[in-house]
Write a structure and sequence with these properties.
- With 392 residues, the chain is mainly alpha-helical.
- 71% of the residues lie in helices and 0% in strands.
- The chain contains 18 helices and no strands.
- It is globular, with a radius of gyration of 21 Å.
């Protein structure tokens, strides 16, 4: 694999946002600036090789993302009189263009890899890097390591959101999403299946993300459907994972106890109406507010208005509120087209990716988060090509 591709994977996974030092918003802008500058540097360094003629697939996605931006713009213009727009709201209109840039640059990087060795190894390198990060993260429980991990998280040392594993993303559900992808890739590539299956399952559980755990269960199901020869050994792995969690819970390991109690509390609230769950109640209030805005403008939504609107921690209600039925539907259609137009051998990777993503989207606007969308479009690019020309 080329050096530029390795650096790109390392940057999107490991580039710090200095969240604990600068705050989340400034940290995200810093991260995006580093990724953008690196992308420009790579293109300028080798523009003759990289500036290849894009295929019809790439042009097709470009037109779709432009159309999505136009829907966002139409919503913003329609709501111009009622909203107090800021610079952040302008960036929201440009989001689809940023996503296409991430996809197009991934295509260029992969084109360079194929020109050199004719194979795609970037997903293997991605999985190995995530595995190393998941190992290193356990150092965060040592107090002296807090100064380093403040590069990636805004939460104070010892708080529940700090204790939950979140890798370099700073958020448990985003890290759970990344680890689920890596678990599926490990089985797909048939590399240390049993160990990786066990390891990623434990890490995902220790994120404490309940939508992440539900997505993991769906991933298990897809693995058992797709990979018949591995069913029996993986069933033993699942049994061993459940036993391990039970033992760790009985030993009163804090993060395990927290994760188990977190799930039990949600089940009691949702199924039996007993007790209280802060996260569930907060998101429920957000959904009610989002539906009120949506009902006032169902087709185009009320547009982004960061000065007045609260954050909606749900991809579907977030987009219904801001961009209405048109915005949400077009975004989902674009994502589905990546599956439809993928190579036949890669479709199950994309299907698994979208399946788990649509579940985790119930707890966060997942596809809009930095690192997440960089990884998402890198995977789309690497599974939408052939040996002669990616994107063809």
């Amino acid at each position: 694999m080329t050096r530029s591709a390795r650096w790109y994977v390392l940057l999107i996974l490991c580039c710090p946002g200095f969240f604990g030092y600068l705050g989340l918003n400034k940290g995200q802008l810093l991260y995006l600036a580093v990724i953008f500058l690196y992308s420009v540097f790579v293109v300028l360094l080798d523009w003759k090789r990289l500036l290849v003629r894009f295929s019809k697939k790439v042009v097709f996605f470009y037109l779709l993302f432009i159309l999505l931006s136009l829907v966002y713009l139409a919503s913003s213009i329609f709501n111009f009189g009622r909203n107090n727009y800021s610079g952040g709201d302008i960036i929201e209109i440009l989001r689809p263009s940023i996503y296409f840039f991430s996809y197009a640059f991934s295509i260029l990087i992969l084109q360079k890899i194929i020109a050199q060795n004719g194979t795609q190894t970037i997903l293997d390198y991605f999985e190995k890097t995530v595995f190393l990060i998941s190992l290193v993260e356990f150092v965060k429980f040592l107090r002296p390591a807090f100064a380093f991990f403040k590069l990636y998280t805004v939460f104070p040392f010892g708080s529940i959101n700090y204790i939950r594993l979140s890798g370099t993303t700073g958020f448990a559900y985003s890290w759970a999403w990344i680890c689920i992808i890596c678990l599926f890739l490990s089985v797909e590539k048939k590399r240390r299946i049993g160990f990786k299956f066990f390891w990623y399952s434990i890490v995902i559980f220790m994120t404490g993300s309940r939508t992440g755990m539900l997505a993991l269960a769906v991933c298990y199901f897809l693995i058992f459907v797709y990979f018949r020869k591995t069913r029996l050994p993986l069933l033993f792995c699942v049994a061993f994972i459940v036993l391990s969690i039970f033992v760790l819970y009985m030993l009163n390991v804090q993060i395990v106890v927290t994760s188990v109690d977190y799930v039990i509390r949600l089940v009691n609230v949702m199924l039996f109406g007993e007790g209280r769950d802060g996260s569930f109640n907060t998101r429920n209030r957000q959904r009610i507010i989002a539906l009120e805005y949506f009902n006032s403008s169902p087709l185009l939504g009320v547009a982004s208005n960061k000065a007045e609107h609260i954050v909606i921690e749900n991809f579907y209600f977030h987009h219904l509120q801001n961009w209405g039925i048109l915005g949400l539907s077009l975004y989902v259609v674009i994502l589905l087209f990546f599956w439809i137009l993928a190579d036949a051998k890669n479709r199950r990777i994309i299907f698994a990716l979208l399946s788990v993503s649509f579940i985790i989207c119930f707890s966060t606007p997942l596809f809009d988060q930095i690192r997440v969308f960089n990884i998402l479009y890198l995977i789309f690019a690497s599974t939408n090509g052939n040996k002669r020309k990616l994107g063809a």
